[in-house]
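User: I'll paste a sequence; please echo it back and then give the predicted structure.

Assistant: Echoing your sequence first, then the prediction.
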Amino acid sequence: MTDTIEARPARKSSANARRPSPGRPSRRASENRAGYAFLAPWLLGFIALTAGPMAASAYLAFTDYHTIRGGEWIGFDNFERLFDDPLFMDSVWVTVKYAVIGTPIKLAAALGVAMLLNNRRRGQGAYRSLFYAPSLIGASVSIAIVWRAIFNDDGAVDNIGQVFGLPEGGWIGNPDLIMPMMVLLTTWQFGAPMVIFLAGLKQIPNELYEAAQVDGAGPLRRFTRITLPMLSPVLFFNLVLETIHSFQVFGSAYIIAQGGHGPDNSLLFYTLYLYESGFGPRGQLGYAAAMAWLLVIAVGIITLIFFRTSRYWVYYAGEGR
């Protein structure tokens, strides 16, 4: 009994020894400070380069602000003016048409090439690099200049078309062909979604195809019943990303149109008109900021629709359906 009583103070003193002294920071506090120190550059960059400009543009959207003479608060007038601006409506139509036509064609090309590259063959790595290369250089200024030279008057495409009896004049000067040319340009840059599709195809068990083949399913039935359902999460991911990217097209359109709108405003993309409104001769930064925020809201709504409707066609492994 005496030994037990004497042992208790010893255990208490050992517990006190493990506690940090009042003037000494704990290890957790030191780790927290180190984490904040490493996070500080990103936080400063986010505040200065992202959050700050977003807050400034949100304020400018409600002002009649010009680059030279400043501006004043006008409330929702900029947003009301947008829907009375015929050039704004043309830019919306051109961008929506580009997104609706170009995105499915680009994804279809990416999926088709990914399925071809998924088969084992000699030099597979070289083929993958070759098909991915346009995505590395496709958004550059030099490629847009080359693309304009190829499809312009007396370009390579125009000369080849004349051999087959097609009318001359090039695609850039033709309002009916300039949008297909832009769709062809974005389809040519299918490398990024192709790589994502290829990664998704590698995750599909080969036993499913073998069982379907034994049951007599042909290639088309195996594609619609196995490949597409198992690949639907990857398809959904690529669809969202490429749709957002299609609403952000700017550099290639600006260079091909040489700062203009193209014939019959056929190259007046939304971002191109936004840039022209804010940094062109008119310098209407408030009007351009309203356009930018309307684009953010529209893309957010489209993305929300995609997520809401994905439950009907996107299949995740482990879900009971």
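Residues 20 and 36 are 22 Å apart (CA to CA). The chain has one domain: 77-312.
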